[in-house]
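2024-03-11 09:14:02 DEBUG pipeline.ingest accepted 1 chain
2024-03-11 09:14:02 DEBUG pipeline.ingest length=389
2024-03-11 09:14:03 DEBUG pipeline.predict start
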Amino acid sequence: MNRHQIEPVEPGWATWLLLGGRGSGKTFAGSVWIDTLARKSKVNLALVGPALHDVREVMVEGASGIKALAEPGDRPRWEAGRRRLLWKNGSAAYAFSAEDPDSLRGPQFHAAWADEFCVWRKPEAVLSNLRFGLRLGAAPRLAVTTTPRPIPALRRLMAEAGTRVDRAATALNAKNLSPGFLAHLTDVYGGTRLAAQELEGQVVEGEGALFGVEDLKRARGSRPAELDRVIVAVDPPASAHGDACGIVVAGRKDRRAFILADRTVRGLSPGGWAAAVCRAARDFDAQEVAAEANQGGEMVRNVLRQSDCPAPVELLHASRSKAARAEPVALLYEQGRVVHCGDFPALEEEMLALGCDGGPSPDRADALVWAVSRLMLGKAAEGPRIRRL
């Protein structure tokens, strides 16, 4: 099994969201998770698919379904009349269709697996009814496997505090696919929005998005040997614990910005995220730390000083919305003047959501906007001037 096919190891999660490309092994991951739970002890489980046909043909009896995991003499038994899968120890997994949200009223479960969430016609209605039924056992949990689409319901699910997100590109499961499948689709769709969504498992831009997949794909490049200036931009969390602190390192050379690293951290105290900022500044020999001060004001500067920040701290005050601040930066991407020196899937996913409704706070993307704006726009981007005498 690949790492993305194993449930999160960190404690405290209520929903495991696996976003994967076509053929990335999402169904196998869900099947293993359900089968493992069913064999540990006697439990009631829910299987929810786009339709009952999908539950049986894909989740239960498909090539990567639950029944395919076990040896022939040890497979759970499908009872078509009661639409349930039975294990020898008495565990049962009941099939439900996302076409009928009300069918989930009444039953109760220890855990549930929801497949292809993004093609459900009423995803939030089904999800809410399902969650009201997760009331058995000490810690009921939900696994959601889907190829992503830029729908508000998915963005809101990703934003929930108890959600842990894993991503899986189709290429990670290439050894289990037809030899020519991936090569052909990459040749035809490589670099497009469709490829990012269907092969890489990324949540691409939706209506109103400021950044486009094509612009981000075109932004791939190498770091120059020398940079004129390097800064660390920080979007501090709004609360002392739990929220993400966006930390992005960027440099400038020849009127172009280079994104060097995404050091974003989550769930740390002010001292914890300040230490991460200072570590990034030291690692990249930054000449400045630029931090948004709307949330914490001078507190932001003070915690950075207490962490022995190696670079001067410039406090930035936002007078416009995140989307409005991002518009001139998006234009720089269209002009090919920003280069990503590495793979930053979580950062790019937030960028693709800027301007769209719903979804998590774009902490990484906001830090990037501050970094590029500071380097490329306004007086701070002009650099030293030479006067002729």
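2024-03-11 09:14:41 DEBUG pipeline.report Residues 383-389 have pLDDT under 50 and may be disordered.
2024-03-11 09:14:41 DEBUG pipeline.predict end
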